[in-house]
Amino acid sequence: MKDLTPSKCTLDSIEIASRDEIEALQIKRLKWSLTHAYESVPHYKASFDVTGVHPSDLKSLNDLSKFPFTIKQDLRDNYPFGMFAVPRDQVVRVHASSGTTGQPTVVGYTQNDLKNWGAVMSRSLRAAGLQPGDMLHNAYGYGLFTGGLGVHLGADTLGLMTVPVSGGMTHRQVRLIEDFKPKGITVTPSYALSILDEFNAQRLDPRASSLETGIFGAEPWTNSMRKEIENAFDMHAVDIYGLSEVMGPGVSMECVETKDGLHIWEDHFFPEIINPETGALVADGEDGELVFTSLTKEAFPIIRYRTRDLTRLLPGTARSMRRMQKVTGRTDDMIILRGVNVFPTQIEECLMATSGLSPHFQIELSRPKKMDQMLVLCEVKKPEIDEKKREIFGRNLIDRIKQSIGISVAVEVAEAGSIERSLGKAVRIIDKR
Predict the structure, then answer these.
(1) What is the pLDDT of residues 31-88, one digit of tens each?
(2) Is the whole-model pTM more than 0.85?
């Protein structure tokens, strides 16, 4: 893989500023954001008043913990535009969640919000090793989902040549990569595996492609998955994080030169880590639930939003801003199996470490005879593997999961290509309980 480390002279000055400079900017912007939300959004005025706090109570960054959390249900209760802080004629774009698990959540952007979003996404793409004039194959979905258009906005800001292919039609994805020869690709990690399968189906060598860097997000993925993708394509694989309630993609980004966690763009987003059960703050370096407060958003300020993502905060390395560890899972996708907490990423780690098995898998939960059971559905890497060998691979995975996680599961190993492929975010859990 090529060295894609960006030149220090291309970085924004705030990326390498001192912690004192960063925190001085944060306190200034945080005071503005709290006041803006309190004065412009009825929900925030009501929640602050009930809690007995006022924006003027913020004297230091530590004082933010006095303010109430925002949760997804608050956004649903104010559907569609009740959380907006500016008049409708100042909102130039809206995005929304799918609403598959309830009322959709709707977010809005002013022109200045889009400018800031473009800036942090541009910063993120540059951190991945892309430079003005490079070509980017953008396979994130376009539409109400923030992924495709958010990345595109940053690519335009950085000055990239963007191929807005969106998701799906995997045969065409590979054909365009072969024909156009982009340097970078943005896509979910699970769909990257589907693209890899298509390269092999077309008898093309993915390592011979033009791709030098891949930017993967929108779902948790492991370092084992990173190695799989990097080895398959001979390219860098870096993690990007974002969520529509906070902005979209580009809230934090892994730097290609270190790949040691995602630097949070702290001049726009203030992070906290809390104990997910008690809501109490935990110290940097300790595991917990990620909480974000926006510092510059005009149309849709968000105060202490509980993301449900599990991670921890670490000091900066390639940049001065703090890092978040790769998300290990979500509080709402945690499986409690006979008293043991299990995350899909743990199963993925075991799968990736088991010889002969592909990275594609699903978890099926059932409750026969009032006892929770887990069935891991997976497949072999290569075609024409006989049933006896598949049974051996399955037993190896059962043993690895038992030793690593401490739970007994059933494993079903199917033929290559049997597991449903993702065209976006992977569906990992099928709950039949």
Answers:
(1) 999 999 999 999 999 999 999 999 999 999 999 999 999 999 999 999 999 999 999 9
(2) yes
Is the CB of residue 348 less than 8 Å from the CB of residue 361?
A: yes
DSSP helix/strand/coil, 6: coil
Residue in 360, 334, 356, 382 with CA at minimum distance from that of residue 190:
360
Please give the pLDDT value at position 156.
Answer: 98
With contact defined as beta carbons under 8 Å apart, do 273 and 304 qualify?
no
**Residue 260 CA neighbour count, 13 Å, CB half:** 9
Q: How many CB atoms lie within 10 A of CB 44?
A: 24
pLDDT reported for residue 422: 74
Tokens of 256: 């290609």
d(C-alpha 87, C-alpha 74), whole Å:
20
Mode of pairing for the β-strands spanning 288-294 and 269-274: antiparallel
Q: Which two tokens stand for residue 58?
A: 């913020």
Q: Which two tokens stand for residue 183?
A: 């340097």
Reference 3, options 315, 208, 189, 255; nearest CA is 255
Angle between helices 223-233 and 344-352 (to 10 degrees): 50
Each residue of 268-289: b (16+ CB within 10 Å) or e? bbbbbbbebeeeebbeeeeebb
| Per-chain mean pLDDT for the chain | 94
pLDDT score recorded for residue 428: 87
Using the Cα atoms of residue 258, residue 261, residue 267 and residue 268 in order, give the sign of their dihedral. positive
